[in-house]
Fold this protein.
Amino acid sequence: MGKRCLTKNYRWPGTYHITIKVKNWKMQPLGRITGNLSKPDGDADAPRVELTPIGRMVEHELLHSISSHYPMVEVQDHVIMPDHLHFIVVVNKTIISKSGREAHLGQIIAGFKKGCNRQYWALEGITPITPQGKTDTPQGKPAAAGNGTTTAGDEAPTTESEIAHLRPAVYPQGYKVPSNASTGREPLFDYRYVDVMPLREGQLAQQRQYIKDNPRSRLLRTSNKAWLMPHRATADSAVTLPALKGYLHRVCGHHAFDDIIWESIKQRLLLKDGRVVCDSYGDIDLLHGRLLPVVCHRRDAHLFPIQKERCLTAAAEGAILVSARISKGEQEIMDAAIRHGAAIILVIDNGMPQVFHPSKERITLCATRHLLLMTPWQYAYRHSAEGISVAECKAMNCIVQALCRQDDAWWKTGA
């Protein structure tokens, strides 16, 4: 959450995708997801966020206060979610504060949070206290925006009557009142934030679409909680460490496998009772179908058309294809199976963190029982440019066959 790019000057022009989380995310203080998944975007009943008064205040601060203090900073696409917010911010020229001093992106975010905190405390009836123990206003009234981010023309509450009007006597159904509303001064937001700079062509467009799709994706996940969350150790591959090591010795050769590589693989594997197990994401009932492994070998390249035809024929007859989808041939077969409406299982090359967000396409496929994601690996952060070793690829192919209880040459003789 708090890492910054060491080579980037955050005072200079740039474009950023910002994510800020609320401090107490379990309370969902900014709103709730509502709508109908069957309705398209733009429809009145499409998935959306119904904001609480706190959420409306945050949106107002985001769209008005930042640009009023820093005219060179433009907030574009945004979404206020129940427990976090995303927005695209464009810095058009070097950031200069109203006092004439250079500022950086972190100071802008900090000022935005401070203004939100003051109004949050006011809406919750908490009188802000200075470090010296005095109220922030001479009359003891809650301040509207303690850092001055709200201008005279903004519609922020400034009196007790206005605050009382905005603060509902009873929260709408589905909202949760923070438990410390009358006793504490916990800030609204986590002190950290995430900034992602679009560097590749098309990345900014992807980030804009991600922001737009957030309410729909959240509703999709919460409507399918049984499937759209990681499940731990759902499949026992029955592969022991000695068996896997022997397999890798046979298929990798000395140039791609040695004791050092084996130790790194062994440390990453998910194990239970000495055997490799897999975590899953999706409908685990797919594991009870007729499973067939899809592994494409170079030695069989001349037979690929036959392999593809037999795999897709089996899928059309109800078999579930299982693959690590590493080689181009495997990608072609598995993608074709999806296009034809078949269900597939993918063994992926990294583990699943507690908060796991596959792509929008994969979430949709999982929700419709067309995809199950499996992994034999513990989760580890990896840069997108990092690849995987030959031995790791071969290990996943071994797990694919073990899950299917079927040799990968089944298509040559029939299953």
Summary: The radius of gyration is 26 Å.
